[in-house]
């Protein structure tokens, strides 16, 4: 019987990793393999996935809808050769991926015999400005979905979810729309039990030329960061950022990592694990529109954050 695939898509910072984390943490005895694709040379998302080990495969430094499509197919083939095979495969795309291109790749006859694309889940930040629904990439992600999950409801104003549902319906999106507080989605929707699976008819349409719209810039350092300086640095960088995420050690809390996320104009910090050996203590990925932020400008701002650096 083919192994069902859950494809998780959504724009930059929508909350895809939180959803995948919740699925893995509440697997209910299912063997779930997760394929995580981050748009950048440092795959922060793979490090943030709960229990990131043999069950999580990282694809980095590109997008699986274009430059990494061969890697995706090879990764799936490797997962399907495992003994025992996974019960489900979850693919988390990068925020810049057009799911139609990934769907097309998953329709490969060789893969289709062994793994079936069962559900496309689009995670949508409920606080996204309604005007952003005019973005071609975001529309493509919504229209490919079987289920749209509204995330970050705890950060949204009252009535935001109702307005977002109406806006999604206005886009003629045929998906079921559900709330996903803290990444929670009813597993029965994503992993239906007792169903005879057959390939669902999917028409991804003709392949479109890849559009290079975003670029990723990485910053690393071995020296601890001053948290007040970092806050000032992010304030300077925020107008140019589409997304940022990373792990760093602060002067204020030596020996512990802090998880940093920036999306939708909001920055959050959360406690992380102890630093791992063999990787830089500070690793942050910044995503911006092409040409908006230079590496020299980024490095200059971020180097002023480290202990012993010049004040920013």
Could you write a compact summary of the structure shown?
GO terms for molecular function: hydrolase activity; nucleotide binding. The chain is an alpha/beta fold and 312 residues long.
Question: Can you give a write-up of this model?
Answer:
It is a single chain. This protein has two domains: 3-190, Rossmann fold (3-Layer(aba) Sandwich); 214-303, 2-Layer Sandwich (Hypothetical Protein Yjia, Chain: A,domain 2). 27% of the residues lie in helices and 25% in strands. It is built from ten helices and twelve strands. It has helices at 16-25, 44-48, 69-80, 99-106, 109-114, 136-143, 160-170, 187-190, 227-237, 295-303, and strands at residues 3-9, 32-37, 56-59, 88-92, 115-125, 147-151, 176-179, 214-221, 243-249, 257-263, 266-271, 282-289. InterPro entries: CobW-likC_sf, CobW-like_C, CobW/HypB/UreG_nucleotide-bd, P-loop_NTPase, Zinc-reg_GTPase_activator. It catalyses: GTP + H2O = GDP + phosphate + H(+). Belongs to the SIMIBI class G3E GTPase family. ZNG1 subfamily.
Overall tally of domains: 2
Under CATH, the topology of the largest domain can be stated as: Rossmann fold
Q: Report the span from N to C terminus.
A: 59 Å
In what order do the strands lie side by side in the largest sheet? 3-2-4-1-5-6-7
Poorly predicted ranges (pLDDT <50, ≥5 residues)?
Answer: 59-68
**CATH H-tier superfamily of the largest domain:** P-loop containing nucleotide triphosphate hydrolases
Strand count, sense and barrel status of the largest sheet are: 7 strands, parallel
Backbone structural class = alpha/beta
- The percent of residues in helical segments reads 25-40%
Strand-residue proportion: 25-35%
Q: What's the overall average pLDDT, rounded?
A: 81
Order of helices and strands: EHEHEHEHHEHEHEHEHEEEEH
Radius of gyration from the CA trace? 20 Å
Shape: globular
Provide the CATH top-level class of the largest domain: Alpha Beta
- Summed up, the helix count is 10
Total strands: the figure is: 12
User: Architecture of the largest domain in CATH?
Assistant: 3-Layer(aba) Sandwich
Domain CobW C-terminal: 214-306
Family: Belongs to the SIMIBI class G3E GTPase family. ZNG1 subfamily.
Keywords: Chaperone, Hydrolase, Nucleotide-binding
Function: Zinc chaperone that directly transfers zinc cofactor to target proteins, thereby activating them. Zinc is transferred from the CXCC motif in the GTPase domain to the zinc binding site in target proteins in a process requiring GTP hydrolysis.
